[in-house]
From TrEMBL:
It comes from Dipteronia dyeriana. Belongs to the Frigida family. This is FRIGIDA-like protein. The lineage of its organism: Eukaryota, Viridiplantae, Streptophyta, Embryophyta, Tracheophyta. Residues 46-109 form a coiled coil. The keyword Coiled coil applies.
Length: 534
């Protein structure tokens, strides 16, 4: 066995080699890099965890705040139920005595006005309240349908009257059920009652909103709300029978959309349908507000662009002001483009051969309507500084003046007989007294000339006279005026030599003469002509 070296004994140390040193150096470098990489990795993981932890903490805080807010709202709604009921009961008690005291007066009004012809606003309100307090929905509807001329008064009176109902929402559904969602009338007589439906539905909103928290809660029972949903689905199902959205009448569309808003039954899945309906009836004044209430605020820019592309720039202006997109869609250029399109449309009407008789009238009416709409829009949105309406008003006055001048009758003397400038004969004395002021310039046909009767004429007066300037081949018609008959034939030409037609062609009626007979088509004009002489 080998001997074990003594630890205390000095032994000769082997000197390290350069290769070993390089190996160790490389190993240390690798370890350092590996450590740095691991350190960076764990640092990144720590930072990610901190970020996720902070995001989760923020979400928890947001959820806690939302939960607290929801609980507060629920608590408030729960508390306000008693308050709302108490307010309603107080209103009911306050009105009970007034209703009872007015029953006799209401009956007298009904007897005195069986057809509902009342002019007094207070009497009108009492009749409406009588229907509502008795929940007589059909009678209420028939009465409202006859008051289109008093629609402004009815707009303020119906909400007051509906507050007398036990269940206003149910009362309104029963009232409009005769014409919505399907018109059940046997005799429609082309009488559209969409205006009455919209009026009643709009009047219901201030009645059913919660008196404490407002529109966020509607005082509509679940049963009535389900009934309103069924009505909406029935109307949507009838779209195909009506020929699609393009063929539905605007009053029906307006009633449907107002029905959705009034009862709070808007569906997110039907937003595209609502958008199409709003665009198809965008010219209605209430459509911008309805679009916002239907949740179409995010789609407004696309809807405005579509209206502009369809030539409805004026409607686009109303939508831009409703949603605050005036800076994106400038109103003045839109109004000018609308007027330009209206002038083009008027010019195309003048050039249309199918409207030759009424072309000038239709073109003027088209331009007048556009001018009035633009002037009203300028005044409504205070755009006078950017788009002065003076020139538009002058143009409108010119068109109206021209319209009035065309309606004036021709200046035909009624009783005064005038002699031609060259001393020719006078026209018949009673020509201007005829029921038709436009006396024909041609003699009566021979088939209508009766044989002369000696008993019709005084002695010494010949029934026929032949003026010296008359053609030999022509005999004047019988004189029917006795001794007051003209002494000479008033016409300067014979029926064989009719006067030539007037030169030139007029697009409409000539100045100071309305279009009459065959004028403008190559025939002789029917108004009184001057007397020509050979």
């Amino acid at each position: 066995m080998g001997s074990i070296p003594d630890p205390g004994e000095l032994t000769e140390l082997t000197p390290p080699s350069f290769d070993e040193f390089q190996r160790q150096t490389s190993l240390m470098t690798s370890c350092t890099l590996l450590w740095k990489e691991l350190s960076d990795h764990f640092t990144s993981l720590e930072q990610n965890l901190l970020k996720k932890s902070a995001a989760l903490r923020n979400k928890i805080q947001t959820l806690d705040s939302e939960t607290k807010a929801s609980l507060d709202i629920l608590k408030k709604r729960e508390v306000t139920i008693d308050g709302s009921v108490e307010i309603t009961m107080e209103q009911l008690e306050d009105r009970t005595d007034a209703v009872l005291n007015s029953l006799s007066r209401q009956k007298e009004e009904e007897w005195n006005n069986p057809d509902g012809e009342v002019d007094d606003g207070e009497a009108l309100l009492m009749i409406l309240k009588n229907f509502c307090s008795k929940m007589e929905a059909r009678s209420f509807w028939k009465f409202v349908a006859t008051k289109k001329k008093e629609i402004d008064d009815m707009r303020s009176l119906i909400p007051v009257a509906l507050s007398e109902c036990v269940d206003p929402a149910k009362f309104v559904l029963e009232a409009i059920s005769e014409v919505f969602p399907v018109d059940k009338r046997r005799e429609k007589n082309n009488n559209d009652l969409g205006w009455a439906c919209v009026l009643v539905l709009e009047s219901l909103i201030p009645v059913v909103v919660d008196p404490v928290i407002g529109k966020s809660r509607l005082l509509v029972t679940p049963t009535v709300k389900e009934k309103a949903k069924e009505i909406a689905e029935t109307w949507k199902a009838s779209l195909e029978e009506r020929g699609g959205i393009e063929n539905v009448k605007t009053p029906d569309v307006h009633t449907f959309l107002q029905h959705l808003v009034t009862f709070g039954i808007v569906k997110e899945e039907d937003v595209d349908l609502y958008r199409k309906l709003v665009v198809s009836s965008a010219w209605r004044k209430q459509m911008p507000k309805l679009a916002v209430s239907l949740g179409l605020g995010d789609k407004m820019p696309d809807m405005i662009k579509e209206l502009i592309s369809r030539g409805q720039q004026l409607d686009a202006v109303h939508f831009t002001y409703e949603v605050g997109l005036v800076n994106k869609f400038l109103p003045v250029p839109l109004l000018k483009a609308f007027l330009k399109d209206a002038r083009k449309a008027a010019a195309s009407i003048l050039e249309d051969p199918n409207n030759a008789g009424r072309a000038a009238q239709l073109a003027a009416r088209k331009e007048q309507s556009a001018l009035r709409s633009v002037i009203k829009c300028i005044e409504e949105y205070k755009l006078e500084a950017e788009f002065p309406p003076e020139n538009l008003k002058k143009r409108l006055e010119q068109l109206e003046k021209a319209k009035v001048e065309k309606k004036k009758p021709a200046a035909v003397p009624a009783n005064k007989r005038t002699r031609a400038s060259n001393g020719g004969p006078m026209p018949p004395a009673k020509a201007g007294r005829s029921t038709n002021a436009y006396v024909s310039s041609f003699p009566a046909p021979p088939t209508f000339v009766r044989s002369p009767s000696h008993s019709q004429y005084p002695a010494g007066v010949s029934p026929y006279q032949s003026p010296p300037y008359q053609s030999p081949s022509y005999q004047s018609p019988p004189t029917l005026y006795g001794t007051r008959s003209p002494q000479a034939h008033p016409y300067a030409y014979s029926p064989e030599a009719a006067p030539p037609p007037l030169a030139g062609s007029y697009p409409g009626a000539p100045m100071n003469y309305p279009a009459y007979g065959g004028y403008g088509s190559g025939l002789a004009p029917a108004y009184q002509q001057a007397y020509y002489h050979r």
